[in-house]
Design a protein that fits this description.
This protein is mainly beta and 153 residues long. The chain contains 2 helices and 7 strands, in the order βββββαβαβ. The strands form 2 sheets. The protein has a 5-stranded antiparallel beta sheet with strand order 1-5-2-6-7. A two-stranded antiparallel sheet has the order 3-4. A hairpin with a 4-residue loop joins strand 3 and strand 4. The protein is globular. The termini are far apart.
């Protein structure tokens, strides 16, 4: 029986070379990607980033989020859910992306189709913008769309 596989878009601590990048070692790196301009924005929350839907925060800059596409199995998805505090801290939602550089190829028909459709899943911080309110400022947005560990507070 073949195990379910998914494409995931990672944009922060799970990227290669970042503090949690080791979690992805057993997964299939597909390539470097970015989100569609104006659909999501990335925020620096100190020790970690999050992405939000631009439509939810009117002052969000018209930017793209820089990340990576990985093909993961169910075990890795469960590990990511634990790391991201899903479903309490983060939601897991579909995201559209553009592949900037393809390195690997999908190993299943489902992920091959998802790659062709430019669709993956990603994690969105659940408490924005409602609970952040006035604490959220333009300084939290990462204008170039690229978070790395050097931005951790």
């Amino acid at each position: 029986m073949t195990q379910q596989r998914n494409l995931v878009f990672v944009y922060g601590t799970l990227k290669q070379g970042q503090c949690r990048g080791h979690v992805m070692r057993q997964s299939n790196f597909i390539g470097h990607a970015k989100t569609i301009t104006g659909q999501q924005a990335i925020l620096n929350l100190g020790n970690f980033p999050t992405i939000v839907h631009s439509k939810d925060i009117p002052e969000a800059p018209e930017s793209t989020v820089i990340g990576e596409i990985w093909e993961i199995d169910e075990k890795t998805l469960q590990a990511l859910d634990r790391i991201e505090g899903y479903p309490f801290l983060y939601t897991r939602e579909p995201i559209s992306f553009e592949l900037v550089e393809q390195v690997g190829t999908p190993s299943s028909p489902e992920t091959e189709k998802a790659l062709a459709d430019k669709q993956a899943i990603s994690y969105f911080y659940k408490r924005l913008p409602e609970e952040w309110g006035k604490r959220l400022s333009m300084e939290n947005f990462i204008e170039d769309g690229n978070w790395d560990d050097s931005l951790a507070g």
